[in-house]
Amino acid sequence: MSTPRTFRSIAIIFNRNSTGDAPALAGELRTSLTALLPYTADIRLQPTNHAGHAVQLAREAAAAGGDILVVSVSGDGGYNEVVNGVMQAGNPDAVCAVMAAGNANDHRRTTGTAPLEQAIAAGKVRRMDLLRITTGEPGDAPHEYAHSYIGFGLTPVMAIGLEKGSKGALKETFSVVRTFSKFKPFEILHTGGKRQKFDSLVLANIAQMAKYATLSEADGKLADGKFEVVIFPHRSKLRILLTALRAATKGLGDQPSVSSYGFTTLKPIPYQIDGEVRSVDADTLVTVHSAPAALATLG
Predict the structure, then answer these.
(1) pLDDT digits over 107-134, tens only?
(2) Which residue from 126, 74, 84, 130 is spatially nearest to 105, judged by alpha carbons?
(3) Measuring CA to CA, which residue among 288, 279, 235 is closest to residue 258?
(4) Potential cystine with 197: which of 34, 64, 234, 290 (Cβ 3.0-4.6 Å)?
(5) Confidence band (pLDDT; 50, 70, 90) for 157?
(6) Is the pLDDT of residue 159 over 90?
(7) Is 71 helix (H, G, I), strand (E, B) or coil?
(8) Are strands 9-15 and 68-74 parallel, antiparallel or unpaired?
């Protein structure tokens, strides 16, 4: 049995301008930890001021060295920034955690095992895989980590449609229907030279996404050095809807798992990484590798 971890400092990172409860939740977490921890730790609230600031704050906190815990009070996108900041710092003793304060909260909902305050006090750290995406030729290409999934095709297109639309269940539904009606498939060139057309391609480190969809049966495989490849080949829109309905009700069942996946884009395409939308240019090599047990976490 491993020795419970204690932390010299705890950085609680949150968006001060969050439309949700992030500022209040961050303050409550610091108060709870002050009372619960059986040792003294430097617990700091660190609000973000702009997009990408959480990467910088997490990197600086972890780079201080030693037993550091960096907590993101956010949704999946905010936690993605914190994870990437900690990974950039290169501190093997740094630990990440997330307190759900977003919309979907896929990562926390899927991987959470205990109330966060209690888990921090107990110091029960475990390790999980990450996804590492590289866009460009190996060696000098930029890379980024994902804690949950990377999606191409329908996934980012829907996210863009929701972002342009209005919030609220009815308005979100209208935005999804409008975006889906205009959706077109995308084509890629596999590393083996085969072209393939998809409606959706999701490389997933967790079994669920978008609040309701169950992508695979991989709940107990968070540290196996592999990720699931969930493919929707190009079909009619009715077939896409039926597959999405199956994901939301009974799940898609077992999916193939791999340690790496690569292809070359034929046209510029968007992709979604842990809820945040990025884009990649045409004629770009995209490679996704599993980073085995790269993330130390708790909660």
Answers:
(1) 787 777 889 999 999 999 999 999 999 9
(2) 74
(3) 288
(4) 234
(5) very low
(6) no
(7) strand
(8) parallel
Instruction: Outline where DSSP puts E strands in 101-182.
Output: 126-135, 143-146, 149-153
Can you tell me which residue has the tokens 């790269």? 294
Instruction: Give the pLDDT confidence of 203-244 residue by residue, as tens digits.
Output: 988 766 554 444 444 555 678 899 989 888 766 656 666 555
Residues in CB range of 17: below 8 A, 6 or more apart: none
Q: What are phi and psi of 224, to 5 degrees?
A: -105, 5
* Contact between residue 268 and residue 282 where contact means Cβ atoms under 8 Å apart: yes
Residue with tokens 């419970």: 4
- Rounded Cα gap, residues 244 and 230, in angstroms: 12
Question: Could you write out the three-class secondary structure of the chain?
Answer: CCCCCCCCEEEEEEECCCCCCHHHHHHHHHHHHHHHCCCCCEEEEEEECCCCHHHHHHHHHHHCCCCEEEEEEECHHHHHHHHHHHHHHCCCCCEEEEEECCCCCHHHHHHCCCCHHHHHHHCCCEEEEEEEEEECCCCCCCEEEECCEEEEEHHHHHHHHHHHCCCCHHHHHHHHHHHHHHCCCEEEEECCCCEEEEEEEEEECCCEECCCEECCCCCCCCCCCCEEEEEEECCCHHHHHHHHHHHHHCCCCCCCEECEEEEEECCCEEEEECCEEEEECCCCEEEEEEEEEEEEECC
CA-CA distance, 187 to 54, in Å (whole number)? Answer: 34
Residue with tokens 């301008």: 17
